Amino acid sequence: MFGNLFEEDEEEGVSSASPKGRVAKGGDEPPLPRGRSNLCGIKNQGGTCYLNSLLQTLLFTPEFREELFSLGPEEIGCLGDRDKPDSKVRVIPLQLQRLFASLLLVDQQSASTADLTDSFGWNSSEGTNQHDVQELNRILFSALEHSLVGTGGSTFIQRLYHGTIANSIVCKECGNISQRQEDFLDLTVCVCGVSSLEEALWNMFVEEEMFEGNNLYRCAQCDRLVTAAKSAKLQKLPPFLTMSLLRFSFDFAKCERYKETGRYSFPLTINLRPFCEQTKGDDSDYFYELFSVIIHKGGCYGGHYHVYIRDIDQLGHWEPSEEDCKPKTQKKVKLEVKEACEPKLQADDPLSVLAAIISQESSKSVLVDQLGQKLMDKIGSSWNKKFRKHYGPIGKFLHSHNDVFILVSNGTRVALKADPPSSVTEPPVPREQTNNADSSAASEPEPFEQHAGPDQRPEPVKEGSHWFDLNDSTVTPIRESDIEKQFQGKESAYMLFYRKTQLHRPGEALNNPQYKVPSHLVQLAQEENIKLQQMRDKFEATNNTVQLRLHLAPSYRLENGALQPANKGLNESTALSFDRRKTVGDLRLTIYQMQEFWEGDMALTVARNLPAGLHLYNTLIDDSVSLYSAGIYTNSDLFVWNGKEVCGATILTGAEWEPVLLTVVRPFLGDDGAKETGDVVAGEDEGGALENGGPGLKSESRGFAGGATLGEVKEALGEPKESVLCQKRGQQGAEEGGGASGWRVFPPDDMHRTLKELSLKDGDALLVLEPQSFDSSVFTLNGDVVTVTTPSDCRWLQVEFRPHEGGGGKGEKQEERRKIKVPATGNMLLCEVKQRAIEELQLQEEPGAPYCLRQVDCTGKLLPPVCEELSIREAGVRLMTTLTLCPGNAPKASQLFLHFSVGTAPSAGMEMGIILERACSVKECLKSMLESVGLDGTCWHLRRLDWCEEVGEPLMDEDASLSELKIISGETLVITEGHLPPKGFLKLSVWLYLDPKITETYLNCVESRNTDEQLEGAVTADGMSHSPNLCGNGTELISVGQVEISDEATLEELKSQVLTLPALQNVCVPTTAFLRVWQLEGQRLARILRGQQVTLRKLKLTSGTDVCVQQLLKEEDLGPKEVLLHVKMGVPGERSYYPPEELVWDASRDSSPRSLRTYVAAHYGLSPDSLLLAKHQPDKHIWEEISNWSQQVSKKKKKKKAESLLGAPLHIKDGDTIGIKNLLIDNNRNFITLQDEQGQQRLREQAEQHKKRDRAAPSDAAGLQKKAGQPKTRKPEVALSINVGVFR
């Protein structure tokens, strides 16, 4: 009818987060048990909410359910026989029986309809296409009728749902009546122009339509056109009457669909006698009562279905909300008492505060790990600040007051015992609940009861009128009054189901879900319940087992401000699996048993592996606290020691003493002995001065305690007081032929500041200079800036002449290989270098025998000719290196030099060379190579060489250009016989994330070693694809190649294969966990790929996707709801920010703005209320402020639902930049910087230019207007169908 117009709203789906607030480890989490309603929901397959709503309605139609269960295996067969030949197994009724039995008897929160939809013949895509529920109702009943042909149930649909309408036309001339009977399954009633169901039925079955004027009726008896009256009456009423409301209409003026959202009322009971043809009989024959309302939420192009159902057999547990149970006066008094008691709850009495928090929860219990957050929400202060000093940790406080609190759900939740000690924190108990209370509690007077009059008691709910809202997997009790809310609006009633009031249920059917369920289905449900309980027990045990890493003090020593293993090459940690529900004392006893020779006290301290080494934080003191309450989770590091010292050295613990790993840089003046002390860093961009013993810098990594002052660092380095410490400022503009880098000198006042106060982080560089260093020309001091400059005598290139291109042969005479030095600068063209070399070597370049310049790698192999149209710097050639002058042509800037061979991978020096245009296609490239070697035919294709110089992946797209495929100069292609292989692997382009803190050493190492010439050529030929400010912190990306890998490979295997790329041979990581993989979209970092063992198919990677690898300083394994953010604090009084920091925010339990603000405040050690946060939109150069959602809500209104930052409107994701304003010291609430204003100005200028072009091209205006007026593209409509076998 409507196809798949109703697309499922994502926000209506069921959250995948565990309600217990924890994430499952390893295997799948078993289905949750039923909730308090004791009713089972149905899982949504992606767009099957319409099917779920109809199935729940049929399930709660007892007569339909019992007719279905009455069909035995002798009539409809067994599912086990459906594959046998000539077997007539009625699969659809059998699967419907199983689904209904599961919904009634299996203890799970929601059941699956996958088997049922498979019996419909639906594929996986049908589960995501939503259809009209009225259309499904008709098609499903038709499929059931066809499936039950020849059985005792072939007519039960007809008996229960089919009725008859008598259509009559009465001739006003002769009185002749022409009557026609019409069968109906449901009545479609009009909504437009009417206000109620009764009015619509009156128009259908009471009002007459007159044929008069130009619209006359031809009477068969009069045999002419006459005036007549047409009417319709209900002739036969079915036991169950289905009403479909015409909410969706078509506007012919606008040519679009729309939804009627006006008020349309319908009664809970209705008398159909006025609309029937025969009005004789008892009133009970015409009275119907409402028992199901299918509701549609949304518009005509998208929405969601759920259903209100009356529990006729009282199978569920219906209970009103706490507020509904209390009289109005009692609620008012409660609010007054709450306001009077609020100051007492904020006093220094943690017992009453915690009791009040727990008692106000609807479940009367709170997750232990969420109790601290709820305490902060209640009193505005954390437990550590308010109570820890006097009462200890919150877990210890709960254990010490076991007369008040009790831990439930295996220690994950805390609840109150039966008799809370404080009357303030105990909520008033309604009179209906006093029968279940203790005798002592019943004898106590209730101060609120005396104010409630007899007319103010809550209205009792009559038996059989229990209503539930079944919304896919969620089941919620509601009242009859809630149905009136569905009379109008975007969320309104769509289908109504009535049943005759004379249909009564037997007493044995009430509260009996097994009533008339076949015994074999009951047995299947019992077996399923046993299996589910076993799965839950196993999962609970597995989920509470944590993997701990124990570090023993005798295996460590204090070095550089952190604990280092005594044996560098060995892993000093001991793995231990332990139940987190056990206490710290149990863990301590277990470790004592493991370490038989341990003597003295044993302290367990939480530790973390940092780049500088192992650091200790808080010590576990209370032995009675469980590991869960102590904050010990899987993969936690615990340091086992005596609590005082390690190998005689005192250990400083806590976050303020976190060690920082710094790169200490010193002058290097060619002393051979100094080469052993650290890595050598070149002094300029174009190259170092190390080949001829010139000056440079050497670096080493040293760790220091974060609480140490800069003066203490200088003493630890053994430097005299006159030495100068400098911090890297960044690269400065290079001078002619040389380069310079700038460093900022720390002022004397900074010598008394700690490394944390100076914001020094892991990887930051520290230059150490003695006063005599400024006597050389390398180091220049200007104010507080030190400039490191490469001297001008390093501005040269060496050119070696080889008359034969292969070179290096034994027969070549040594005198033919002559070398000269050519003075050069970075801006000098390579053609000038070649011309000077030819002149000094006294050579002549003939027109038919040109020369070219080529670089040489460390093995003596000639690299591709360099482009002579470029400068030395643009071509990536470093000064003070050697170029080879040999016969051959040089490529132009638009060309590539490629090696190729036929059949197999070429041996060194045996490949052939060819120069082609970058825009040349693969097909044209193959043709040119075949012509150069004298081959013909079409059964050839090209392949690349892989990282181990073997024939690798084929070039699949023959029409793509070489530049599009990122084929670089010097690459080797292999001409392979045969057609292109079929597609079976993913081809992923790999980029390297250039983090300035980590990759600076990597790039310097690349520039200082000849073994990396290939990477330099790759970068130059590919243009070094820069993407500035991808993350808002100035980082850039560089292309490093492509990989071909199966889509069934895991993310860990992808990381391992990426590390084998030649361009990444200098990237060294201990394990793949030190690599972060991003997915790129439009040259921007889009999302982080998570899960080491997740396949690329599940990560939804397709061929051609761009991925980016980022080297990390520590291992990382992000969870599905952990978001990586770049946060930067605003500089007080300025329109700028401090350098950004990476923070991992865990949004799995709470993704609200309050959670993010609390997390950021804890990181900076500030109060959450003093921070103002905003998200940066780099495309628009604007900042979106993140509201704190702390506005007051009226007491008459319900409490606002916490907003999620992961959804609309902010959609915070990996890599987003979050700006922070500390309002205590910064009154400027504006996040816009000067760069943002400049970017906004550029956007406005671009918009003006677009407007001018539009005005200049009026002929295109009509086309643009037509395009703008086109409706949004919708999915193609797919007809709904159910496949049924032939059973006649």
UniProtKB/TrEMBL annotation:
GO terms under cellular component: cytosol; nucleus
Molecular functions per Gene Ontology: cysteine-type deubiquitinase activity
Membrane-crossing residue ranges in chain numbering: none
InterPro entries linked to this entry: Papain-like_cys_pep_sf, Peptidase_C19, Peptidase_C19_UCH, UBL_USP40, USP, USP_CS
Domain USP: start-end pairs: 40-501
Polar residues: compositionally biased ranges: 432-442
Ranges annotated as biased composition (Basic and acidic residues): 448-466, 1245-1257
Pfam families listed in its UniProt record: UBL_USP40, UCH
Protein keywords: Hydrolase
Ranges for region Disordered: 1-38, 417-470, 1245-1288
Biological process per Gene Ontology, one example term: protein deubiquitination
Biased composition (Acidic residues): 1-13
Name under which the protein is recorded: Ubiquitin carboxyl-terminal hydrolase 40 isoform X2
Species classification: Eukaryota, Metazoa, Chordata, Craniata, Vertebrata
The gene coding this protein: usp40
